[in-house]
Amino acid sequence: MTAVDTKMSVVGYVSTVTASIVADALFVWPLHVVVAAGQNAILAVLCIGGWAMTIAGLHTVHRPQPQWVRQVWTIVDVMGWILLWSIDAVMVVSLLSMLKTFYFFETPEWALLLPFCAVVGWGASKPRDTVHSLATFWVPLLFIGSILIVAVAMGNIQYPRALIPNQVVSVRPVFRAIQVMAYVVTPIGVTLRGIASEVQAAPTGLVRVLGPLLAWLFLVLLYLLVVGTLGPSALVHLRWPVVFMLDQVTLDSAFFVSRVGIAVIFGWTMGLALGFMIHVDVMAGGLARLWPNPSARWLVAGGASIGWYWAALGIAAPAMASHVLLVSLDPLAVGYLLTEGALLLTTRVTMLWGAGSRSRTIDERD
To answer: Cis bond leading into 127, ω under 30°?
Structure first.
């Protein structure tokens, strides 16, 4: 019998990267960006898209590297894992607070947290191809469904002028808004490196960029919808403007639901859980390379889920979660991304220089 190839296809690769990014950007987007830059927030959104594309584009197929280079990358990846887990913990708090505010008013926090963390831990403890198969199935479904609903909601845009930057642009607020979105870019490099060995064929530059591009376009669409519908002035008074906006969308009575908010939240909660599974998969795969033990995956999955559970109970207030994200994690994310970008650029330049040197040597021999 022919062995079944369990490695990811191109669709699975793109879906996995997209889910990893979007999972940490659904419930707080785009409130903090507009608070930081006002109507010029769209400039920061465009800049962060360029930053995401750059990080993805600088990644390349890993070639044999000196031991000290591999050690440096290991340190950078461990930093990325810790930072990614911390960002995920803040997102769990945001999800929990949003569910209690909109839908489950009297439900105890632990009753919402326990099944979510248990499902994530159980799913992440499965073999890697299981997580990738889930991404291949659910991400296109959730992504296309969300796009259709957002497209329907676009008919409610009342403030198109709010989508255009001011004539006078203050640079400092725009840079502040870029820093606010640093947590959105953080999963890109960690995920690309973590799943590089799981792809059937080495991904081309276009394929590497496609996942971040789809995630960024989806977030831009949400920005246009929320800001164009509510306007910057009203938006800054809502803790979850995207959820509030979609909860007001009604469909024709021929549909099986008239109000789509609950359907969107159900789908996005699944997307969040899938994104967390991918993050655990990346961390578990990295630990397995450093410590080849059969229990490594179970330890990472269980430890991450239990940690999220207690972190969510400890950071009970959504305002505290936002404070942790903006004041502590975002500056750390900026430092991490600058370090990662510098290493990626150095690696790329070194590879090009080495290829040029070998080409010149061959020409001289000829």
So the answer is: no
